[in-house]
Structure formats: C-alpha cells, structure tokens
C-alpha cells in the first residue's frame, strides 16, 4: 500500500514538473515569499515599515541618486538581530539629503537638496558631532532603484516590505477558511438531514452577501488594523471550502472503506479525519490556491479603500491608493509598480492552482 502511495506521489510530481507554467508560477511564489521574509535584509531602507521620509526628494524617478548625510545620534539602539529581521531597524540617526558639502575649519558646511532647479538652504554643523571629527564616512551617495514616493520614501523598500502583507493575508485567511469550512462541510456532508439543511441555510445566507461588503462590515465591527483584516477576509472565504467539502463527503461516505470503518466501530470523528478527508485533499489544495489569490485581491481592495493595513504600514493596495492620481501627472509607475506586483502574485497562484488541478485529476 505504501509503495503504491509513493508511486502515485512520484507520478504527481513528474506531471507537475512537466507543467511549465506550474513550475514557473511556483518559482515566482517562492521568490516573492523569500523577498517578504527577508524584506528588511534586502531593502535599502531597513527602518520599520521602510518609513524614512525626505520630503525634499519626493516623487523622484527610478534610478534617482542623491548624497545623504547621516547625523549620528548619542542614543544607542539595543535592538536584537531577530527584531531587526522581522520588525525593521530602529532609526536613531538623522538623514539629510544634500547637494554638496565642504569642510571649513571645525565646521561641516552643506547645502540641503532642493528639487525643481531651486537652491537649497546652506547650513553648517560642528565636526564634533561625528566620531573622530570625520563626517565624510557619514556621507554616501544613495541610489533609489524604483525612485521615491510622494513622501520621499524609498519605493523599492516599500514594495519589499509591502509583500509581507499580501503573503501573510493569503496564509492566514486560507487557514481560517479551511478550519471553518472543513468543520461545517464535514458535518453537513456526513450527517445530512436537518444538520445539512441548517448548515446549508447558513452557507446560502453568507453566499448571498457580497464578499467585499461582508469584509467591510466585519472590519468595521472589529476595528481597523492588520489582524482585523486578516480575520475578516478569512471569515468570508470559508463558504466555498464548506461547499466543496460537503459535496466531496456526500460522494464518498457510502464507499466500501467508509462502510467497513463503521462496521469496525470507529467513531464518526475518526472516520472523517482518517478515512474521508485524506481522500478529498486534492480539490482542497486547488481551492486553497484560488482562495490565496482571492484573499490578496480582497486585501488590496480594502487597503485601497482605506480600511486595510493602516499607515505607515506598507501595503501594495495602499500604495496604489496614495499614487493613483499620479497616473495623469506623468509618473504612472508609482501606481503601476505595486499593481504589477499584485497581478504577478495573483496570477502565479491561479496558474499553480490550474497546474495542481491537472496533476491531481485522477482521470488523467
């Protein structure tokens, strides 16, 4: 039995490997997942939420470069490695974009950066503020690969950090929908009768309410915030899972192996958990991939409406909201870049779901 199971698994893996779009989409998902996990390691701006604002360099084009003066602070950060990895670095130093500088005597004189051909303010600072009175080690040319947003924040860093929201919403929402959907669908499909009628009544009511409207209502009831959105999206996606589980269990509960399990005196819980659910896992995997994509779109829509992840937290949907008017102001990339990221991630999950459907289809 084990050899047959291993053989079927190997056949499924071989079929998946031969599906170009399935492998390609899985690679994209893994790559974006690594970007989201190590966002603060890869981001040029490793501050929390990549929220270093410099209004003098706002809305700059991709590839923009400027000299950045970092003024050291006497406050020492006691942040640990894991905190920096997952939460970003605590900012203790002050950064100032400058256009030029020179050292005269015991003072550092510099000109603040000003855009649109304007001349910035000339200021001076004592060399004693820098260790060993050497300010040049605190001046570097900063490059902004994706440019800056309307607040002067590094756009590449915001994109990398914002990927965490989209990835997390998928996992948490799918987990919540699976837990509720499996319980409700199993009870309805296995017991039938009045239990099935009652659960289907609840499912039909939830199904009739527009998803976005229901998410907005739950979000407003729980309050605006990061976790509230995740819970709200998860609570609206269990219906599809429940319907699939119910239908699958109704089609297999009269099979011989289920009848044999009942004859042996196994409990209903054991029969459902150990004998029925493992045999209907294929459609669950496919619908989970589709729900992953749907959760990302719903979260992006909520962030665009202003009731998703709240500022200064980076979110692809919120980034589109902040910059959609720039499409007609000659800088459409500020809205197109996060939009393309959402499209790429959603399309990858849909393509992988299609590939898994073909691989797990017993008829092929």
UniProtKB/TrEMBL annotation:
Grouped into one coarse class, the protein's main location is membrane
Annotated membrane-spanning segments are 20-43, 165-191, 198-220, 226-245, 276-298, 333-356
Assigned keywords, A-Z? Cell membrane, Membrane, Transmembrane, Transmembrane helix, Transport
Membrane topology according to the record = Multi-pass membrane protein
Where is the protein localized?
Cell membrane
ABC transmembrane type-1 domain spans which residues? 163-353
Entry similarity comment? Belongs to the binding-protein-dependent transport system permease family.
According to UniProt, the name of this protein is ABC transporter permease
Query: What is the species listed in this Swiss-Prot or TrEMBL entry?
Result: Winogradskyella maritima
């Amino acid at each position: 039995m084990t050899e047959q199971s291993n053989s079927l698994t190997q056949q499924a893996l071989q079929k998946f490997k031969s599906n170009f779009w399935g492998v390609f989409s899985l690679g994209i998902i893994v790559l974006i997942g690594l970007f989201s996990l190590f966002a603060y390691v890869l981001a040029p701006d490793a501050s929390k939420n990549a929220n270093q604002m410099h209004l003098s360099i706002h809305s700059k084009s991709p590839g923009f470069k400027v000299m950045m003066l970092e003024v050291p602070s006497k406050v020492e950060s006691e942040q640990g490695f894991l905190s920096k990895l997952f939460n970003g670095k605590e900012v203790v130093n002050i950064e100032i974009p400058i256009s030029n500088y020179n050292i005269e005597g015991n003072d550092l004189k510099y000109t603040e950066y000003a855009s649109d051909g304007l001349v910035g303010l000339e200021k001076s600072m004592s060399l004693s503020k820098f260790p060993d009175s050497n300010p040049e080690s605190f001046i570097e040319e900063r490059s902004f690969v994706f440019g800056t947003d309307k607040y002067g924040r590094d756009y590449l860093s915001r994109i990398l950090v914002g990927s965490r929201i989209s990835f997390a919403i998928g996992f948490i929402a799918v987990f919540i929908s699976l837990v509720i959907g499996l319980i409700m669908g199993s009870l309805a499909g296995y017991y039938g009768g009045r239990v099935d009628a009652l659960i289907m009544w609840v499912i039909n009511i939830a199904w009739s309410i527009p998803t976005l409207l229901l998410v907005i209502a739950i979000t407003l009831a729980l309050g605006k915030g990061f976790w509230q959105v995740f819970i709200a999206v998860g609570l609206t996606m269990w219906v599809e899972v429940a319907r699939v589980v119910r239908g699958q269990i109704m089609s297999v509960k009269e099979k011989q192996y289920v009848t044999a399990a009942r004859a042996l005196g196994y409990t209903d819980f054991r029969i459902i958990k150990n004998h029925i659910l493992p045999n209907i896992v294929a459609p669950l995997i496919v619908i989970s991939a589709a729900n992953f994509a749907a959760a990302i779109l719903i979260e992006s829509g909520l962030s665009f409406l202003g009731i998703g992840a709240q500022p200064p937290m980076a979110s692809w949907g919120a980034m589109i909201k902040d910059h959609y008017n720039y499409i007609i102001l000659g800088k459409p990339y500020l809205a197109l870049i996060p939009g393309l990221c959402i499209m790429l991630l959603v399309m990858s999950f849909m393509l992988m779901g299609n590939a898994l459907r073909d691989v797990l289809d017993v008829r092929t």
